[in-house]
Amino acid sequence: MSAAEQVDFASLMEPVAARLLGEPNRRLSKPPKDIRYGNHGSLAIDLSNGCFFDHENGCGGGVIDLVASQLNCDRDTAIG
Asked: Fewer CB within 10 Å: C terminus or N terminus of the chain?
């Protein structure tokens, strides 16, 4: 089993999102299920499933995808 298979990436979504995106939009967030970022809450973090969807850019995925999206890099670079 590789190191990536041993990591519970879904549980890392909230702290990774906070590190990358800062404070969520409290008015539009609905913890503990989801948190929203942006003035209109267009970036949604689903905490129960550990995934995100960016409604403005039409992309989503897991923690590594969020890192790649926010740092404008590929998945391999996001992991490294």
From this structure: N
The C-alpha torsion from 10 through 12 and 14 to 20, rounded to 10°, is -120
pLDDT digits (tens, 9 = 90+) for 24-56: 999 999 988 999 999 999 999 999 999 999 999
Q: How far apart are the first and last CA of the chain?
A: 19
Average pLDDT, the chain: 92
**pTM (global) more than 0.85:** yes
Q: What is the DSSP string of 33-48?
A: TEEEESTT--EEEETT
Bridge partners of residue 35, in order along the sequence? 45
